[in-house]
TrEMBL record:
<dbReference type="GO" id="GO:0016757">
    <property type="term" value="F:glycosyltransferase activity"/>
</dbReference>
<feature type="binding site">
    <location>
        <position position="176"/>
    </location>
    <ligand>
        <name>Mn(2+)</name>
    </ligand>
</feature>
<dbReference type="GO" id="GO:0071555">
    <property type="term" value="P:cell wall organization"/>
</dbReference>
<feature type="active site">
    <location>
        <position position="369"/>
    </location>
</feature>
<feature type="binding site">
    <location>
        <position position="200"/>
    </location>
    <ligand>
        <name>Mn(2+)</name>
    </ligand>
</feature>
<keyword id="KW-0961">Cell wall biogenesis/degradation</keyword>
<feature type="binding site">
    <location>
        <position position="11"/>
    </location>
    <ligand>
        <name>UDP-alpha-D-glucose</name>
    </ligand>
</feature>
<feature type="binding site">
    <location>
        <position position="40"/>
    </location>
    <ligand>
        <name>UDP-alpha-D-glucose</name>
    </ligand>
</feature>
<feature type="transmembrane region" description="Helical">
    <location>
        <begin position="480"/>
        <end position="500"/>
    </location>
</feature>
<dbReference type="InterPro" id="IPR005150">
    <property type="entry name" value="Cellulose_synth"/>
</dbReference>
<feature type="transmembrane region" description="Helical">
    <location>
        <begin position="638"/>
        <end position="656"/>
    </location>
</feature>
<dbReference type="InterPro" id="IPR029044">
    <property type="entry name" value="Nucleotide-diphossugar_trans"/>
</dbReference>
<feature type="transmembrane region" description="Helical">
    <location>
        <begin position="571"/>
        <end position="593"/>
    </location>
</feature>
<keyword id="KW-0175">Coiled coil</keyword>
<protein>
    <recommendedName>
        <fullName>Cellulose synthase-like protein H1</fullName>
    </recommendedName>
</protein>
<dbReference type="Pfam" id="PF03552">
    <property type="entry name" value="Cellulose_synt"/>
</dbReference>
<keyword id="KW-1133">Transmembrane helix</keyword>
Length: 657
């Protein structure tokens, strides 16, 4: 079980701690589990929080198992009403145990909070010595075995291991994909389990039986090739009502997410996924029959040279050979592989190897998840989707404008990077084993951001027509108007139907439509720009971590929760400019300032409706012009937008500006 975290500011350690606790407590024999936490932030605070959490886990895990608690992330469990929920034990003994646990969790929470305020531990001694003289992007590897299941007993706790891989400014670290590869190698040395679950630090296990569910799918297929990985689709907790930021993905999961299962299987989504270790090591479906014979004869490795791509660690290559032929060779204790673990976490280990190219999580895209999943499907593997009730994992969807835009921009960038790379799905279908329809499903995803450019121009069109008093739609009285009008109505009704059919509201539909247009104008266009800059060799793309908030119930009920927020980021400029252009158009028209035209060539109701429609889509920006604080578009952004809008109007309006 892998958990990745990268920044204690954007990803508060208490969130990571809850995810770790929920994983430690899943219903599965504990001696067969190990939880590895990768900290790309190299933060003593995260380490301290995990140390405290490990102590708390010794109380929490037995408590959850004894009373069969369903929600095993303490912050969620204790946030619910303190009255017992249905099906829970009502005995005095349980009540007392729960109260004690609540106090203990409160203590843990306070300790972590104090530590984050006071930058505790202030003196980096004892366990913390390793963190002295470290910088986030320049430090040696730190590996700490925090809990060890020494007795190999199912009733104890799983292993818990903290890893902060080595970083040096001049060595690329490949963001999350790099972190996952280090986790893969270290876990290969220490425990070498045939299956690997990975979650983002905010995705706690919401269904304690999830490992069993996933195993049913992984072990239940007739041929291994039918299930390379099991993906639990992403769902989120405490989402704002009616999905104001359009990122709760419910409709996407329902239709695309489950529809694609009928082809080659779901995309790998980066979190909530169970991988087979050997698939991550680059196995092909056909290898499944031959591997056993070719690698090992009389228990000795014969073809070690074929494993050169895995790097120079002998011990690690040995573990790979075992993994590939499906043997478990758990070392007796974790400590014996510690030295090798340091070796495989160094920032030079991957030089001249196939890591990120043929093996492990793939490099070259900020959406390493889609790229890695695509590489697996391209080899002809299938994947499966696991949707238990209650949902397997829940995370937090970004809230507010800036966080949503950061995430969308990263996705747009990463997906386009895949499209323009040689690993794109078209190549995979023509020359390898990607199914045609699966290829189309990937293309739908990968080309989305490209739409931003025609869409932006199209959104300018009605304003342009009004300013120049021309038209792009047939007039109201012409029969041809039926065509665009029908397309418009059918498209919107159909989308609305999709939302209503899964039990969402009209408001949720509208919010999603609106957010898609705003995202397209702002985040996606910047995504396209950053890929163009990368292709021209002018800049590299970066993985910007999205901010996670631990929402409390008071937040989610306040009126402002779900309001769109802004910051100084340039992503908001195109949206602001687009809105202002439309406002100028409406303004000039209502004052009669637009040029005269004959009855037949001037703009008519169609163009006005389109303009009003665009303004409605960008309503949060309109409000942002007048509101205060973080709900206001910063003046500099308004200025930049206004300059662009005026320039546009100046170009196209023949009236004397
Ligand atoms: O250098 C880095 C950057 C990020 N992360 C971790 O990667 C995860 C995902 O980052 P996040 O900012 O939460 O991204 P999201 O947009 O929420 O994530 C979705 O999209 C990403 C790809 O864009 C996938 O990697 C994620 O798994 C998927 O949940 C987090 O646990 C981070 O801690 C690292 O470990 N190292
Ligand atoms: Mn996330």
């Amino acid at each position: 079980m892998f958990v990745t975290t990268a920044d204690p500011q954007l990803e508060p350690p208490i969130i990571t701690v809850n995810t770790v606790l929920s994983l430690m407590a899943v219903d599965y024999p504990a001696h067969k589990l190990a939880c590895y936490v990768s900290d790309d932030g190299c933060s003593p605070l995260t380490f301290y929080s995990l140390m405290e959490a490990a102590k708390f886990a010794k109380l929490w895990v037995p408590f959850c198992k004894k009373y069969n608690i369903q929600l095993r992330a303490p912050f969620r469990y204790f946030a619910r009403n303190s009255t017992t929920s249905s099906g829970e034990d009502c005995s005095m003994e349980f009540q007392q145990a729960r109260d004690t646990m609540k106090d203990e969790y409160e203590k843990l929470r306070r300790k972590i909070e104090d530590a984050s305020l006071g930058s505790v531990p202030s003196n980096l001694s004892g366990e913390f010595v390793a963190f002295s003289n470290t910088e986030r992007k320049n430090h040696p590897t730190i590996i700490k075995i925090m809990l060890e299941n020494k007795g190999g007993s199912p009733d104890e706790l799983p292993h818990l291991i903290y890893i902060s891989r080595e970083k040096q400014p001049k060595h690329p670290h490949h963001y999350k994909a790099g972190a996952m590869n280090v986790l893969t190698r270290v876990s290969g040395l220490m425990t070498n389990a045939p299956l690997m679950l990975n979650v983002d630090c905010d995705m706690y296990a919401n269904n304690p039986q999830i490992v069993l569910h996933a195993l049913c799918l992984l072990l239940g297929t007739k041929y291994e090739r039918d299930c390379a990985f099991v993906q639990c689709l992403q769902y989120f907790y405490d989402g704002a009502k009616d999905d104001p930021f359009g990122n709760q993905l419910v409709v996407r999961n329902e239709y695309l997410g489950q529809g694609i299962v009928g082809i080659q299987g779901p995309y790998y989504e980066g979190t909530g996924c169970f991988h087979r270790r050997k698939v991550i090591y680059g196995s092909w479906p056909e290898d499944m029959k031959t591997e056993k014979k070719s690698l090992i004869s009389n228990g000795e490795l014969t073809k070690v040279e074929s494993l050169n791509g895995f790097g120079i660690s002998k011990q690690f290559i040995n573990s790979v050979a075992h993994a590939l032929q499906g043997n478990s060779d758990n070392p007796k204790d974790l400590w014996s592989s510690l030295e090798a673990a340091y070796q495989v976490s160094s920032c030079t280990y991957e030089y001249n190897t196939n890591w990120g190219k043929e093996i492990g999580w793939m490099y070259g895209s900020t959406t390493e998840d889609i790229l890695t999943g695509l590489a697996i499907h391209t080899k002809g593997w299938r994947s499966l989707c696991c949707l238990p009730n209650p949902p397997a994992f829940l995370g937090c969807a970004p809230s507010g404008g800036p966080a949503s835009m950061t995430q969308q921009k990263r996705w747009a960038t990463g997906l386009l990077e895949i499209l323009v790379s040689k690993r794109n799905p078209i190549y995979g279908t023509l020359f390898m084993h990607l199914h045609l329809r699966q290829c189309l499903a990937y293309l739908w995803l990968l080309t989305r951001a490209l739409r931003s450019i025609p869409e932006f121009l199209y959104a300018l069109l009605p304003a342009y027509c009004i300013m120049t008093n021309s038209h792009f739609l047939p007039k109201g009285q012409e029969p041809a108007i039926i065509i665009p009008a029908t397309i418009f109505v059918i498209y919107n009704l159909y989308c609305l139907y999709e939302y209503l059919a899964v039990g969402l509201s009209i408001r949720a539909w509208w919010n999603n439509q609106r957010m898609q247009r705003m995202t397209s104008a702002c985040a996606w266009s910047f995504g396209v720009l950053s890929v163009v800059l990368k292709l021209l060799g002018l800049s590299e793309t970066v993985f910007e971590v999205s901010k996670k908030d631990q929402s409390t119930s008071s937040d989610s009920t306040s009126a402002e929760f779900g309001s769109f927020t802004f910051d100084e980021s340039p992503v908001f400029v195109p949206g602001t400019a687009l809105l202002l252009v439309h406002l100028i158009a409406l303004f000039t028209m209502s004052l009669g300032l637009h040029p005269q035209a004959s009855e037949s060539s001037g703009s008519s109701l169609g163009e006005v409706i389109c303009t009003v429609w665009v303004v409605m889509y960008f309503w949060p920006f309109f409000r942002g012009l007048f509101r205060r604080g973080k709900y206001r578009i910063p003046s500099t952004t308004i200025m930049k937008g206004a300059i662009l809008a005026t320039f546009f109007a100046y170009l196209f309006t023949p009236i004397g500006w």
